[in-house]
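Quick one: structure tokens for this chain, please?
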Amino acid sequence: MVPTLRHHEAGRRRVVVHSLEAVRRAAQRGEWSRACVLVDRSDELLPIKAYNVAITACGAAGEWRAALRILRSLTVPSKNRPRPDAVTFNAAGAATAKSGRWQETVRVLRQARRYVPPHPALYTSAIACCGRAGELPLALELLAALRAERGVADTVAFTAAIDACARRGDYENAARLYEEMRGEAKPNDRTHRALALAAARGGALDDAAKLLERTGYSLPVAEAVLVSLKERGDWRSAIALLAKLNATEETYGCCVHAAGACAAAGRCAEARAIVDRFEAPPKSPTSFRALRARRAAHTQAIVACGRQQHLGEAVAVFEDLCARASPDLAAFNALLVACRGNPDAALRVWGRLRDHPRLKPDAISVAETIACLDRAGRLEDADRVLGAALDAGIPLKNTVLDLHDEIDVSSLPVPVAKAVVRRAIKNTTTTLHLITGVGRRHKPTSTSTSLRDALLHAFPIARPGPTPGTLIILD
């Protein structure tokens, strides 16, 4: 009997180890659904590590609902499932936080208190998620709870709370937390970046400048200040700060934000001067980072030229980018925006984008091209662009043509909606029902008209539908 029992236990342990390894392999391959199946259908009592790995795999894939389902199964008393530990709740909280589900993340934290003392990492996930969602009071409340439970908070938790303040421009609370933090944890570059951003967004530019000097013009801090200056369109301050930084690959991100400040203010010449800081194509192992920054800076310069209606300069910046690095979709779209008054130029850019070996036009590309052609009265060209976009499978938001000749154009820009309706009229012989949508975003403003009114004006055969937000076009 004894040897038989030992053999049985040894066999069971081998099965458990094999199952745990299978879950780990599935997680490493990104097969989150298989990891879930393995823990759900196991006939053996698996260790909590297996469930933690499965929850982590779900979080990495953005499947927060699946992660919570596994957590829920562990909180129901059962002989076939282990009790959740701190790592379980950390993984579930990270999964929901990564997907921006702040309410679910806070619920996971509160649920954890019934099983184990919540780990600081779980608090940090909740604080950061609430901060990104704009829930600053709750983020501060969670930090206070962490400090009350643990006596102190770590650098990561304080930094997440200061970042939450920065997102709301609450420099007063950010500065208070920073002073309190210095007695419990050591600030790092991320902390200083968040504090500088809070100061700049809160209007305390002098304090942001002092922090820059105190940190020796640390790049994370400088970048944070430049982000705020870009948001304000303060191109003079952005250029002045950029002049104090050496032009190296490490400062390329700062160049992008400074160019963005120039673009926001429509300062074409200044944006092009920043682009000139990107000299020869880099040959170092970090060249991908530099090329990405180069594309972003050139795109901001194109935007600046477009806002000043300097199409020739926008094209010159674009061609310079093509000579130094392959442009991305954002650069093409920025150039299409700059072509708003020149339909021939817009068609040329559209053609180059369609023929690009790696890039594919998106809804913005289609909308900008059609809008330019519509303003010029070149409706046939606009219709051809729409047809090419539909043939290429480019999604135009949620436009739907169903079996009952009902078209939902509520999410489309007016020029694209007009092209869609013209195409539908050509392709059907029955009455068309249009859904233009209702709600605040569809009401006219001082500079625009509602989609419904625009379609009524463009198509004399259109009539108001029987319900709000609808039109009928008779056959």
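Residues 280-286, 399-403 have pLDDT under 50 and may be disordered.
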